[in-house]
Design goal:
Blueprint lengths: L3 H13 L6 E2 L6 H13 L10 E7 H20 L1 H15 L3 E8 H10 L7 H22 L3 E5 L2 H11 L6 E12 L11 H4 L8
Helix pairs in contact: 2-6, 3-4
Bound molecules: flavin mononucleotide.
Organism: Malassezia caprae
GO cellular component, one term: cytoplasm
Protein name: Nitroreductase domain-containing protein
Length: 208
């Protein structure tokens, strides 16, 4: 499997992953197939001690629309008043215009289990859980974009996590991490500036 061609394809896929806000509901894959891909992306994400604590809920159709058209505005209204809803209206409508939302959770029951099993790392497990969720998120984000979708990452979960858990009967131990909105990419990504590579990666000790 290892080859420079595979590495080039991988690089292309991650270079293609960008934040895309201009999304529509145009279908690319049958939804069953799309969900199968998302399952496969999440399955391959690494986790500390292979705890596999990441959980994902995919909202499609009316469920996606209700999230951005009702659940988020209602939560924003309760937390910050009508003004906050008004100020976010355009942005939320943009998310609703997409095809679906991948909601990422971590099952904290499993993290507590790790803390009990390995007390010497107790304080690190919650951090590693977040790292692992980030890894699942980047797999799904890059994977969706390699399938032709556009996606962006949102964080309304602090306001909506409990509502989602009760609506979809999810375990109390699930902790929401983020929401990834995806759809047909109607607009390109915005220009992105990069700092010099040498500021980010330094190599020492070249072999002869
Ligand atoms: C951990 C993390 C949190 C982010 N949170 C948000 C967010 O809440 N809303 C949003 O619109 N973009 C969010 N983004 C997207 C970043 O703004 C975006 O990735 C960054 O500007 C680089 O652009 P690119 O994704 O096109 O490469 C987040 C990205 C990361 C990695």
């Amino acid at each position: 499997m290892a080859s420079t061609q595979v590495a080039r394809s991988f690089l292309q896929a991650i270079q293609h992953r960008r934040t895309i806000y201009g999304l529509s509901k145009k279908q690319i894959l049958p939804e069953e197939e799309l969900v199968k891909y998302i399952r496969a992306f999440v399955k391959e994400a690494p986790s500390s001690f292979n705890v596999q604590s990441g959980r994902v809920v995919v909202l499609l159709g009316a469920e996606h629309d209700q999230y951005w058209g009702q659940i988020v505005p209602d939560a924003l209204r309760s937390a910050a008043g009508e003004q906050a809803v008004e100020a976010s209206k355009g942005k939320l409508a943009g998310f609703q215009a997409g095809l679906g939302t991948v909601v990422f959770f971590e099952d904290e029951k499993l993290i507590q289990g790790q803390q009990e099993a390995y007390p010497q790392y107790a304080s690190a497990f919650p951090i590693w859980s977040q790292h692992s969720s980030g890894m699942a998120q980047i797999y799904v984000w890059s994977g969706l974009e390699s399938l032709g979708y556009g996606a962006n990452l949102q964080h309304y979960g602090g306001l909506t996590g409990e509502t989602l858990k009760s609506k979809y009967n999810l375990p109390a131990s699930y902790k929401i991490q983020s929401e990834m909105v995806f759809g047909y990419p109607e607009q390109p990504a915005r220009e992105k500036e990069y700092i010099p590579d040498h500021e980010r990666v330094i190599a020492y000790g070249h072999s002869a």
